[in-house]
Design a protein that fits this description.
Layout lengths: L1 H37 L4 H14 L4 E7 L2 E7 L5 E7 L7 H17 L3 H12 L6 H18 L4 H23 L4 H25 L6 H9 L5 H11 L4 H30 L12 H22 L7 H21 L3 H23 L4 H8 L5 H13 L2 H47 L1 H28 L3 H22 L1
Antiparallel strand pairs: 1-2, 2-3
Amino acid sequence: MENEERVIQNHIDNSESERTYFDKVLAVAIEVGCGLLSCGCPVGRVELAVEYICNAYGAAAVSVSTFPSMIIAGVRIADGSQVSQLKRVYSISNNFAKMEAYNQLSRDICAKKYPVDQAAELVSALRTSHNPSKLITALSAGIGAAAFTVFYGGSLIDAIPGGLVGGLMAYLSCIFARLAFNSYARTFMLSLIGGVLSTFLCWLITLTGLTCHLSTVMMGTIMIVIPGLLLCNAIRDLFSGDTYSGTSELLNAIITTLAIVAGYGISMFISSTFMADVPIDKRVGLEDYLYRIISCFIGTTAFTVFFGGSFKRLIPSAIDAMVTFAVYLVMEAFVGEILLDMLVATAVAAILSEVFARTIKAPAIIFFVPGVIIFVPGRTLYLTVNALISGEWGAAMSSGGEMGKTLLGIVIGLIVITILFNLISPTFHSKYLRKRVGKEKRILTQKEVLQAKENLAKKAMQSQESLTKPNCDSNQVENNTQTESTQINENKGE
């Protein structure tokens, strides 16, 4: 009875120590996943990071489910039970540098096999790092808004109020985020403030006798609040099989867009009561190409910094954007159908971002968003809302149709490349795992340890069963011993 209790106690101790170990592993993996998710990383990449970390520490079976605001993960241990955890993500922002840092940390954890406590310390240290200052955020947003003001046909004078308003909107966004403002309310307030300030500054400039185009200023500042990253992630997740996450993100993008329409719509109604917009002078020929190319380069570079991208990623992001825009200009000149133009250009941007991601070992999204930011329909969104405010239903239908074609071209182009690389990715990931297993002997050792624990558990159960059976073998041995001793005594008597 004492041996039976000892065997059972040892089995319980092994299970409890293994459960404690994988509790720590799951805590590290989910913390990395939540960090990636909070920076705007796609759901599929988040799930891969959590799964790879758990596998690196010897997990036999891992289940991960990621939602836009929550991660649930579980690990099966040797006794067949599950160790699971979940964590909620309360806010999501655009921080490409921090996303890349979390991505690199997940790779380092898988490759170097840090002790679990050390890995937890590294994750905790990363949580408070790579946070850009409000000054850099506001400055980059101001430069980006000024560049897109010129890109949409505005003059250099228009770039002044565009840059000032864009920078102030980004600064206020940082303050609102720290005050735990609801994201939709924050977008509405920023849109309203941006529209009213754009109107006020343009009115002040016109009082000096200079010409200022309110429409291009609003087109430039509206880019600060356009949910470009959210829309890209929604499309990627939908066509990567994450239907719930993609649908939720798409609905989020739609509601955010409605908040932008409401905020800018109110400001447009206010401006129409006392200020008439000046018609935009169209640029033609070489002048138009020079203005658009230069403003495209400046705008995409500034928005890469605005999205929290590191300075060392400015060159590949700029290459992606400029090559994509060059393809669009060629398509615009020889095809002239906005749907096909956007489709081909977006496909090129997606291919380049995937190539950069695999070459530099960074998430593809940090290269794709700057590559297509120039195609985000800020201009057509403004024209549609302005036409609705003015009661020009025909113009509203025309600009709305153009906006729909633009979005459809971006969606189809991204879908085609996403599906293509999803067909390639399973082979790529399986080769990666085989390479890890071949190089990192510790993974095999940990799996062997798990197998040994399972064997010990089986032996413990067998021992428990053997202890409960009648001890027939021992009785037989005693009878044989007694028979042999009797024969010996008889021989001695003779």
